[in-house]
Design a protein that fits this description.
The complex is a heterotetramer, with 2 copies of chain A (321 residues) and 2 copies of chain B (344 residues). Chain A is built from 11 helices and 14 strands. Chain A has 321 residues and is α/β, with parallel strands linked by helices. The chains are: A alpha/beta (321), B alpha/beta (344). Chains A and D meet through helix 4, helix 5 and helix 9 of A and helix 4, helix 5 and helix 9 of D. Bound molecules: thiamine diphosphate (TPP) (2 copies) and magnesium ion (2 copies). One thiamine diphosphate sits between chains B (78-79, 127-129, 158-161, 164, 188, 190-192, 253, 257) and D (28, 56, 58, 80, 84, 87).
Chain lengths: 321, 344, 344, 321
């Protein structure tokens, strides 16, 4: 038996609904239809009345979840695509993210953002918005890269008293499989060393962890041993784990699918150089998507985002520095 | 007086009693007294930032506050001092918030009208107009989940706030969910300096109700009796399962937008129309007409309100202000997260 | 057929002529033919991403496209293939965009329905529903500044799209500015899988018109004659200075939401109601009833449409696809900025 | 005679309106009232019909400006406060920022954001959102620190063919004065060395340039000579000028009023270490506001944002590294 990243997300929601009567799901087409990606498939049948179809009103979807959370519920909001969450930015960053700080009343909502590129998805169904949300105080921004993390982190997201932006990568939905789901996982504020290495640290998250792993396999043939840190959660950021890795390898390459300016990569690199400058034997490097919208055409898209080959080349250059 | 748009006029609301009227009037008077004090503190430089008054809107607001019951939900906006008090706000919290006291509900982190006790059903607005409507709606969704079938929620919005996308999404969503939500639109003719005709083009904002499939009513916002009647009707309809209610009260903002603003742009003619009446005076006259209270009695109430307010100010002033050294500067509620970050 | 909400019925629109009807029908037929081809290309794996069809909505869309004049502005949405063609879109550009051709209007950067030539008044939608309405309104603001008093703008929106805050803000703003904007709401009963009763609670979406102070009409979206009449009336009203017009056409989406979707959730009974009629068949019947065209003539048109489409596909397929090596990856239009960045 | 930062903004708009019939202004209370801060005072009188009051509809304000720009106009949109632009994020980042890239039709709109903290303004009237917008491809994000720049950069913003987010600092509005307005200024993609120094580079922008200058004056008494680079525009970012300064001083301290995670500071530091790692003799450092909403109480606010004293202390530490 095997379970996909998408199924893990479904299973986590099922478990959350089963274990906690405060949980409900709100989003467009999530009930009978089971969601645009089927992340809520059959849940409406299993939990009648707890999976609600929303109008095309992202602002009100999040606003209402905040109100319900104030009353002690634990809503999960599904955005149909991460890209549409731009219409709920105000509710997310100003209302949800500040509620506890302003009033001492917690805001335990989880907002699921189907994120990242897929062939042919174009500029408005491909965005990676983790950096937008991570900039604002009060939000937890999760970016699971594995089936296991998709499962345990989503459960943690629902459990946490703060608003969580859960960036699940669409490219991984059906491509990533695991044998089974774990009972428990690392807490979200801890990064994970996804591969041990000696020569170079690659920091990545979400789908890019797999590009980094593929690059590491190629580099192994050249006897370059890459260590990979999977951030898991980009806010708060586990700088300690990154620093510990860089302390071993003395070289840092950051890979992220979001746009370069002020994204996860620049936050990681800045955290490392401000706290661990002396650990580095070479300039830290980053690979991002290009600074344009995400293109539709598959060839353009492939050149727009970081690829295994680009990572390999950058890592090799850094190794040889 | 009961000018309903959708349903036929029905006599579900008992006539306004002396007791209720006086109760509402007292909150209006107290609110006015609070705000006069706030304005003078502001002029004296004792309050940082802005001070926003509900002068001229006390009748609408008091009516809402009074007709909500314990266990209901209230999402007040900037001009709802009367409603806040009627809903149970403590006087001293008002001044604590304006001063930035450590002891206030926001502990100095947010100020003036941005206060509330959300867990008690008393929501704390953010500045972004329209964004509170869906929050109150969501609280009602939660009540439904929890099996609470008796509570309702009310929130207010200005004429300007009706132009926000948030307002539209929220009321539509509440209508789809048939939530017991009362949205009171207070049309005080201006949004900051912007008059109605630059804000919307319909004849009357209550014409929006039908487009959402909610029940809509109008009321004279300067007349406490009209407000008590119509809000009683709307809250009763919401409570008895008729879904969202939209009530539009008309009046005139009798202050500047904030105390920094002299409102020079307001059409002076409006002050001489029915809209420009001071609801507090109208209510006082009505009390005397009905022989429910004479001038002397009102004067006693007024003095009493003043004294309460002075005591509250004095108490707040004796209390410590917010202090940066108390702050952990951590925005998270989750204990293990906050701890992990502090250790780092 | 002319079911107006606000203004009294008036006979400002001449009866639909044979010529106009046939012209509209031809665009409908061509659009249907284009989309059948797109669907088969998609099934064959020749198109990446999604393919979205306007099947069942060609009458509404063609009516809009035909009643706009050169110099007007059109902001089509996903199911507006017929209107796009009638407004002047080139067939080959459709396929270029779906293939991601270097030669297409978006040069492979955006795909499928996200195409347009904004400088020609033909706007290119982004995915976010509702967000195009204010853009078209703004284009009309510009026309007013430029002294162009004859042009109007039209845009469409689905039943689902009416729930967006963007839609609300834009139509309200257009009403305040009294812009010559025609907003055609196509109620095809579903937004993806979501039926009307989970989307809004009013009796009829046209009930929203009064709340914005705009004129509102309904039309039978399955009946080309109804669409031509009502859209003619609305465009005429807009053109003659009566401000924004809201037209609501009812029909049923006769395809899945996109070609990946079989629409299993659609209430099958609807297909047997008047809503479920295929507007193309209804129009063909009408042509024959009126003896404006017989079966053989329609068949000639059909063959002709097929041929045009095949030629366009063939042309697009011969052309080069987008190529990353052509890209400078610079998002800026300002030449000196782009150059400064390239040098860096 | 002297002219304030706010007056410079008004003058620039007046000039733009006078010189270019394509310019108009749209925003809440901008016409007869002259704007919440009086940045459009008297313009409605001077240019009848070209200053339009908007309903409280930030999304439609920006959307309509985009439509007008497509038709060749050059709209200036005034947000009443930067904080309310969160309601227009979708129109800004998805519609305006991508228009040229998608269609080859330029989108010359200017969105003015009254930004930054002022005593007693609290969490929703104090935000600095430059980092939010700079993350998205296609936007130019200007952050003028001087009266002169407020004037010439706003004129340039209107002139530029791309959408410009013009972050004007409310704290400077009436506090900053100059003798007169310049004829012309540096192009926006060039940073400016605001003060020459030897020992340390401070990179700052907007109001923080003045905190940095004050700190530099104090440090001079200790014989520490600080060089100050005023970024002027945070997107695109003039890394060259920063690198050139760091090449001289070998030490970098970045100061910004926005939140730390992924903000301007982290982008500047990352750009410097990826391109000029070898130039640095000490770890680059940053000072931001604290990672919470901006507090209302004046004392809390003062501790939340970077102050001269904090800059002095950090610069001294860095100097002594
Ligand atoms: C979304 C948003 N945009 C702008 C503002 C700035 N603003 C604060 S109050 C106000 C006018 C509000 O008018 P109205 O809703 O009629 O309420 P009133 O002040 O008249 O009670 C404006 C524009 C805001 N608070 N929120
Ligand atoms: C703001 C926004 N939210 C969500 C979506 C995802 N989405 C794409 S089409 C669609 C349904 C649209 O329904 P409707 O407006 O009725 O148009 P129809 O597809 O029926 O023509 C949804 C939810 C979107 N495009 N934009
Ligand atoms: Mg008002
Ligand atoms: Mg639909």
């Amino acid at each position: 038996m095997s379970i996909t990243y998408l199924e893990a997300i479904r299973e986590a929601q099922e478990k959350a609904l089963r274990d906690d009567p405060r949980v409900y799901i709100y989003g467009q087409d999530v009930a009978a239809f089971g969601g645009a990606f089927k992340a809520t498939k059959n849940l409406a049948k299993e939990f009648p009345g707890r999976i609600l179809d929303a109008p095309i009103s992202e602002d009100a979807m999040v606003g209402s979840a905040i109100g319900a959370a104030i009353e002690g519920m634990r809503p999960i909001v599904e955005m149909q695509f991460a890209d549409f969450s731009t219409l709920a930015v105000n509710q997310i960053v100003n209302q949800a993210a500040t509620l506890y700080w302003r009033t001492q009343v917690a805001c335990p909502i989880t907002i699921r953002l189907p994120s990242g590129g897929n062939p042919g998805s174009g500029p408005f169904h491909s965005q990676s918005l983790e950096s937008l949300y991570a900039h604002f105080p009060g939000l937890v921004v999760m970016t699971p890269a594995t089936v296991e993390d998709a499962y345990t982190m989503l459960l943690e997201a629902v459990d946490i008293d703060d608003p969580v932006i859960f960036c699940e990568h669409k490219y991984l939905y059906n491509r990533l499989k695991s044998a089974e789901l774990p009972e428990s996982g690392l807490p979200c504020h801890q990064a994970r060393v996804a591969r041990l290495g000696r020569d170079l640290t690659i920091v990545a998250y979400s789908a890019m962890v797999h590009e980094a792993l593929a690059a590491a396999e190629q580099l192994r043939k050249e006897d370059i041993e890459v260590e990979i840190v999977d951030l898991r959660c980009v806010k708060p950021l586990d700088v300690d784990t990154v620093l510990a890795s860089v302390a071993r390898t003395a070289r840092l390459l950051c890979v992220g699918e979001s746009w370069p300016w002020g994204g996860v990569n620049s936050e990681v690199i800045t955290s490392v150089v401000t706290h661990g400058f002396h650990l580095l034997d070479a300039p830290p490097q980053r690979i991002n998507s290009k600074d344009t919208p995400v293109p539709f055409h598959v060839g353009l898209w492939g050149a727009h985002k970081p690829s295994t080959q680009v990572i390999v080349a950058a890592a090799r250059r850094l190794y040889e520095w | 007086m009961l000018d309903t748009l959708n349903p036929p006029k029905r006599n579900v609301v008992p006539p306004v009693s002396r007791e209720q009227y006086i109760k509402a009037f007292s909150w209006m008077l107290l609110a006015r007294t609070v705000e006069e004090k706030l304005a003078s503190l502001w002029r004296a430089g004792k309050i940082a930032g802005g001070v926003y008054l509900g002068k001229g809107q006390e009748a609408v607001s008091a009516a809402i506050g009074i007709l909500l019951k314990s266990g209901d939900i209230f999402g007040p906006l900037i001009r709802d001092q009367a409603g806040r008090l009627a809903f149970g706000e403590s006087l001293v919290d008002i001044f604590r918030t304006h001063f930035g006291s450590r002891t206030g509900p926001t502990r100095g982190r947010d100020g003036n009208v941005h206060r509330g006790k959300p867990r008690d059903g008393y929501h704390a607005m953010i500045s972004h107009l329209g964004s509170l409507v869906s929050v109150v709606a969501g609280a009602l969704v939660a009540r439904r989940f929890k099996g609470d079938t008796s509570a309702i929620g009310a929130t207010t919005i200005g004429d300007g706030g009706t132009s926000t996308g948030s307002f539209h999404e929220a009321i539509n969503m509440a209508a789809v969910e048939k939530l017991p939500l009362v949205v009171v639109v207070v049309n005080n003719q201006y949004a900051y300096s912007t008059p109605n005709h630059r804000q919307f083009a319909c004849n009357h904002l209550v014409d929006r109700a039908i487009g959402y499939g909610v029940e809509g009513y109008t009321m004279d916002g300067t007349d406490l009796r009209s407000c008590l009647e119509v809000v009683a009707y709307a809250t009763e309809r919401a409570r008895s399962g008729h879904g969202p209610q939209m009530v539009v009260g008309s009046c005139l903002r009798l202050s500047g937008h904030g105390e920094h603003d002299d409102g020079f742009y307001v059409d002076k003619n409006l002050f001489h129309t029915a809209l420009g009446r001071d609801c507090l005076k109208v209510a006082e006259n009505y009390l005397q007409e009905q022989e429910w209270a004479d001038e002397a009695l009102v004067e006693t109430w007024r003095r009493n309100a003043k004294q309460q307010v002075e005591e509250a100010v004095a108490k707040a002033q004796r209390e410590p202000l917010a202090d940066p050294s108390d702050e952990t500067w951590c925005p998270y509620a989750t204990q293990r997260l906050a701890q992990a970050l502090l250790v780092r």
